[in-house]
Amino acid sequence: MRHRLSAILAVFLLLSAGAAPAAAATGTTHAQSNASQIDSPTCSFPVTVTDATGENVTVTETPERVVTLSPSAAQTMWEIGARDQVVGVTQYAHYLDGASNRTNVSGTGDAYIDRETVVSLEPDLVLAPDTISSETVAKLRAANLTVYHYPSADSIATIKEQTHVTGALVGACDGANETVTEMESKLDTVRTAVDGEERPRAIYTFFGYTAGNNTFIDTIIETAGGTNVAAEAGIDGYAQINEETIVERNPEWIIRNSQDPTVPETAAYNSTDAVKNGNVIVLNYNYLNQPAPRVVQPITALAQAMHPEAFAAANATTTTDEPSATTTQANATTTSAAETTSGGSPGFGVIAALVGALAALATATRRLD
């Protein structure tokens, strides 16, 4: 029970985020809603960016000490080649190579971040996800820290945009440009593969919940060439999924994450085409829900699983990394790159959906004391 509570809390942190407005930029950084139109920011200081709180965040010189308050921000720093500037990370970022050598800034209980630890690190810049409250951000700023508060990431375009913004803030524009270019190359392969293909019915389920309209997971499924049946069923955001909907929508693919990989053993799930045909794919927990560059890996893995022949043809002249996924298909299990199942990250709004589950599990846990 304790393990299950911890896992759901991790998913809560991973997916929870407010519907913050997109960041706007001034000075040398230009943030736009359409990633294909994003101009790479000029790497020069000072740089000023308007963040999700409406604050004009100014960085006067290359920050030598950066604290990340989310694993997605840490992952972005790693991907753009700026890991050496990071001095503090949360416990959920420890899947990143070398992150365990940084100071853990996680808090306990309702305090997801230990502000005193953050302040003690004397960072030049703090990168805060949208899951961090405006109150916490204000208190960090009151301690004379420069804090950039990320907007909610609801699309791949936003991830690419914020990768550029992060690069500009930390003086790693070249690394950000290379990262976004690599992302786009892999996504182009996926788009080519799924173009004109029949879209199988798919659903993502985790701990009894699913992801419907207006979720990043919906974007992942659609980009990979599937149809999100939770969205088709009218589910908005993250919500509990009942078995009647599972039976009615009869998904051809069931997507799980590596923290909750097993499909429920119920008549409803067993009746689906997905289970009957062994079409269950387990995607890397740390990459699936984190609004950061490695999200292209689960997108690629899902596209490859749902459209193997088309993907192979599209990929014939393109070199891509092995996606992190485990696919169970009709009497055979195929496992590509090894997964790390620890961790989690802010993604976006499932707070209301998971509060009930957290409360119920907390009560059950107390009964075991």
UniProtKB/TrEMBL annotation:
Region (Disordered) location:
315-343
Matching Pfam families: Peripla_BP_2
Q: Where is the composition biased (Low complexity)?
A: 315-342
Q: Which InterPro entries match?
A: ABC_Transporter_SBP (IPR050902), ABC_transptr_periplasmic_BD (IPR002491), Peripla_PGF_1 (IPR026469), PGF_CTERM (IPR026371), Vit_B12_bind_prot (IPR054828)
Q: Spell out the GO cellular component terms annotated for this protein, sorted alphabetically and separated by semicolons.
A: plasma membrane; S-layer
Q: Does the keyword Disulfide bond apply?
A: no
Sorted alphabetically, which Gene3D superfamilies does this protein's record hold?
Nitrogenase molybdenum iron protein domain
The alphabetical list of record keywords is:
Signal
Query: Which residues does the UniProt record annotate as the domain Fe/B12 periplasmic-binding?
Result: 65-310
What is the top-level taxon of the source organism?
Archaea
Q: Name one GO biological process term.
A: cellular response to iron ion
Name under which the protein is recorded: Cobalamin-binding protein
